[in-house]
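Ticket reopened. Same input as before:
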Amino acid sequence: MRSSSNAGSAHLFAALGDETRLHLVVRLCEEGPMSITRLTEGANVTRQAITKHLRVMEGSGLVRSRRHGRESVWQLEQRRLADARRYLDRISRQWDAALLRLRAFVEDAEEA
Amino acid sequence: MSTDRIEKQILLRAPRARVWRALSDAEEFGTWFGLRFDGRFAPGARLHGVLTPTTVDPEVGKLQKPHEGLPFEITIEQIEPEALFSFRWHPHAIEPGVDYSAEPTTLVTFRLEEKTEGILLTVTESGFDQIPLARRAQAFSANEGGWAIMVTVIGKYVTHAQ
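Engineering reply: fixed in the latest deploy. New output:
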């Protein structure tokens, strides 16, 4: 299970590694769930392109859609965004470990 | 929560000169961190290093062992004797065979502050928002289990050290 969740994280970041997709995420984040029609408004790309980007992100579990009348309404999967923060947690833990070694190093030398 | 910056503090019960040497002397820095450098720390200096398992904690050293020889590159920014030391590097650059040199770096700063109990050391690393998202993702695929083990080991280590 672990390796599949790692692969999922890699997909997540790949999905976010595009300006249009990042822009879509920001809009869904700030304005909440919305239709493709509304997402296309104000964008420099076509509705087809927006749909394609949304499908990529759907494949990464970053967004999901539900039918609302004749249109699909798209929204963010919040949990996946939280995953993105784990990167910093990882590096943070590395520093914790390194600083404990530094402490052992300078304090031990004192006693010796 | 900032996604761009990490800040850590630790109180070191050792004289200021001792802490400063452990940070500003390339060989001493490498000893606790687990790196071996090819030169001395000086403002503007660009040094190459290789991952060399730490001897300060044999358990951690053992965990670093599989990455032994991994190349690192750091550029020294500021050196203010016994007060501040900073450098730039590529964070979590642990994919073998990947050339990180064209990618943005993060800035690591160590600040020393005299307290009655010892030296309060503040470490900040900033600039993560500039790191490509794809690169950040690799931090997950590398060693997910390894870090969980590391945290457990550190927990034990701290308890024993008391």
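Helices of chain A lie at 2-16, 19-31, 36-40, 47-59, 78-84, 86-111. Residues 2-111 of chain A form a domain with the Arc Repressor Mutant, subunit A fold (CATH 1.10.10.10). Please confirm and we'll close it.
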